[in-house]
Write a structure and sequence with these properties.
With 349 residues, the protein is of the alpha/beta class. It contains nine helices and 15 strands.
């Protein structure tokens, strides 16, 4: 911890996490002094889909909090489709998965990488321009933090971070990732439907990008990670592929599993079974891809660990156990609090 941080810990520090839920933002705040939590409070604000700026209500609320404390840190959990995780850390590894490394910010772990498109990060910083944002967290970094806090599984294990609007899906052996994908779930008119958000690449380029933060071993000593120059965005391929799936020929197909899933799920299915059915079918398809594609290690998966930040039903768990023959381990959590705690750890070490 730097000298300034040593002094800072004697003051009240406010940490704010913002996590997207169904057409709303959950804003959770913690006040830390002398490395101890003094108070915690949260508020939920409605948000318009695809809003270009925060509502004045949210901004006024956060600014009022910023004015009360000498040090304030705001963190956001990235929830856009232009992100993923791959096995490997080198440029050739990204090429293997058809991810243009010049178009993404990468966070490198020992043997794998999380990434997010510069445009998604720009867009996030644009939305938070009036209040500023200190940390942007990848859901894969959050998932990795969660699994690292538990006894690591030496056998390949399927891990899921379940949120109201998204599901983060990864296969790890100990701390090594072999397969990962972020999947967006969007609700309309009381029914579950899914939408592959593809217009992120059409957003206008911003002049600046602030920071992408994640708890990886390379960045734990840094409070924030500076992003590079965005001039390379001018050369973005209009057909940039942002998913991590590979077809049977070894070439990335960003819509293959999504399309297969949509073909299988009718409106009647959605009405009858809803969100759990969608997630079950997605897990089933993804496991088939993992087993069939030679690009992955394709070890047999016996166990699934679910970090449940929303509401996974007993029937869903039973289906995973009986139909996919998976041993299910469940951990309920508040995702907003986890994100807030990551920021606290980044500052206090």
């Amino acid at each position: 911890m730097s000298f300034s941080n040593t002094i800072q810990k004697y003051f009240s520090n406010l940490f704010i996490s913002i996590v997207a839920e169904n057409n709303s933002y959950r804003v959770l705040s913690k006040v830390i002094k002398n490395s101890k939590q003094k108070v915690k409070f949260e508020k939920i604000f409605p948000v318009k889909p695809n809003a270009e700026f925060l509502s004045s209500e949210i901004e006024e609320y956060i600014i009022s909090l910023q004015e009360k404390y000498n040090f304030t840190y705001i963190s956001f959990l990235l929830d856009s489709m232009g992100q993923g995780a791959i096995k490997g850390t080198q440029a050739e590894d990204f090429a293997k998965y058809s991810v243009d490394i010049k178009s993404v910010k990468t966070i490198k772990f020992d043997t794998w990488s999380a990434y997010a498109s510069f445009i998604d990060i720009n867009w996030t910083n644009k939305i938070y321009a009036n209040i500023g944002i200190d940390f942007i967290y990848s859901p894969f970094a959050v998932l990795f933090h969660l699994l690292s806090e538990h006894k690591l599984k030496e056998r390949p294990t399927l891990y899921i971070l379940n949120q109201e609007e998204s599901i983060t899906f990864a296969i790890f052996k100990a701390k090594t990732l072999d397969f990962g994908v972020f999947y967006k779930i969007v609700k309309y008119d009381g029914l579950d439907s899914s939408e592959e958000v593809e217009n992120w690449e059409e957003e206008s380029e911003a002049e600046d990008v602030e920071n992408l933060a994640a708890l990886d071993e390379d960045s734990q000593e840094e409070e924030m990670t500076e992003l590079g120059d965005l001039s390379e965005l001018d050369t973005l391929d209009d057909n940039f592929e942002n998913d991590t799936f590979i077809d049977s020929d070894g070439y990335a197909d960003e819509n293959s599993l999504q399309d297969d899933l949509e073909d299988d799920i009718s409106i009647n299915d959605i009405e009858l079974y809803g969100r759990d059915l969608k997630i079950f079918k997605f897990i089933s398809r993804a496991l088939k891809e993992y087993y069939a594609n030679p690009v992955y290690d394709s070890n047999f998966i016996e166990k699934i660990v679910i970090f449940d930040g929303y509401d996974m039903s007993h029937e869903m768990i039973q289906s995973l156990e009986e139909e996919l023959y998976l041993d299910v381990e469940m951990h309920k959590l508040n995702v907003s609090e986890v994100v807030c705690d990551l920021s606290i750890g980044a500052i206090y070490g």
